[in-house]
Amino acid sequence: MFGAWAPASANAALPPQGVYDQCAPATDDCATNLQMIADAGFKYVLNYTAWYGSADQVREYADEAQAVGLQVIWPLNDHAWRDGTDLRSHYRYLGPDCHCSNNAQFKQWALGLVKDHPATWGFYVGDELSPSSANVSQTHALEDEVKSIAPGKPTMYVTIPNGNGVLTSQLQPFAHVADYVGADYYPVGKASTMDGVSNYASETRDITGGAGSNPIFVLQAFSWSSYDSSMADRFPSRSEMQQMRDMAIGSGNPQMLLWYAFNDVMRSSNPAGNWEAVKDAAFAPYVRVTGVSGKRCVPRLKAKVSVRANAAIRTVRAKLDGRPVLKTSRENSRVPSLRLRGGRHVLRVTATDRQGKASVQSLRFRICAAVR
Length: 372
What we know:
The chain has ten helices and 15 strands. By secondary structure, the protein is of the alpha/beta class. The chain has two domains: 17-283, Glycosidases (TIM Barrel, Alpha-Beta Barrel); 287-367, Immunoglobulin-like (Sandwich). The two termini are 17 Å apart.
């Protein structure tokens, strides 16, 4: 028996997504990068080297982002923004354009170049800092400066689990330093488990919830060999990237997802293929099956299916042991309750949106005894 076919309702969208990049406006063709990122469907770009240009080149970068519909998260994570390093000297392309005599004036001037630009989302006040008292206080101070200069713009901070795999002690001290706070985790190619994505996303949700900040999560789109030549060239597959994305969404309900990093994709051994894989993984429909567990036997199948997609849902189909049991275009549906023999079964759900993007979720479960 099929579940009822019904017209699609307004679908729940995927979390907004963006990418990291490294592109210096003074020396690189950043317009091409921005066009590729926008064409893929991403909404945000966090360019670590966005300040590597003259004042005119930085503004031109913002104009180029606006032209393709991207929002820029401006990087203030460099230590120079926090520790008293002379910013005019530190930024050799930008510094000479600032007629200022101290860092406070430089910050006011530099942020003033972009804070009111339509392409500006906000500012990135730090990442992956050790939770020392100096780092925490300096990041808080930077956040306060940013809010005084650009009070209407959000801020962001991202950290990483420590060497022992512990996130809480890394994230908790910084939970109040920005409007959007989160973690990154890059397991593919290292002796790390994918389950960490679910665990860390869940911790991020809980910690930010207590602090009143918005949870975000950063996902892997690079090979560790880009940073350590002794490591194997192991770029995450499309299925691995989508699995990490689904884990982050399912466990953390992030308000934004970022992928690290566009520049690493472009310098990988297969830039075109890997970029296609990133796009497919990022924007495939998200399928969640609840009500049945693959870890223990259940007396009967009571499965619910929910789908999130950026485009309208075309079809959601489910097969139970190869037999069609559901066909709908609703974002939320229920698999009909059926008489099943005791033993192992497979539920396979396929969701396709009207852009042709598809996702498959397979769940193996065990019925404790035949349903009577």
